[in-house]
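User: I'm curious whether this sequence folds into something compact or stays loose and floppy. Could you predict its structure so I can see for myself?
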Amino acid sequence: MRVSKPLDQGRSGEDQVVAAGGESGAIVQMSSMGGQQSPPGFGASCSAKFALEAMSESLAAEVAPFGVKLLIVEPGAFRTEFGGSRLRRSRVIDAYRESTGDIRDFVERMDGSQPGDPAKAAAAILKVLDSDDAPLRLALGDDAVDGLRATHEARAAELAAWEELSRSTAL
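Assistant: Here's the prediction. I'll summarize afterward.
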């Protein structure tokens, strides 16, 4: 059985670590593949995930000396009712149908057909937390792995294509 104790938000600095157990622990930040890529129509949601991941990278380095692991979980589509009746939708704007219509239609149809199993995701998270070489990020699901790989490859290619110009700005 795992017992978790949250960081005490009423305390600051070192007192928080002591309040959380002092010597070890883990923080799991639930992001999504949208924490590293932002498809049309998801700017607001993805910007929150990007911010969460940036803050988490910094926090991971800050708490590491206390034996606290931080894991950013980046799932793809899991059967969690995302896309279902709980999803708040913005109004349809015809002018944006070309850029956002396909993704909007996909989200409308996805509830109940997402390929990810939440129980298997939870087991994967626990397996990573129990490992000695836990990564900072864990992509979950084929769609997350494939999508994030494509995003990273595109960014690497863009950086390489513009590297000479980018480096030319040095004094």
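Summary: The helical segments are 14-19, 43-63, 97-110, 118-130, 142-161, 163-167. The longest strand covers residues 68-75.
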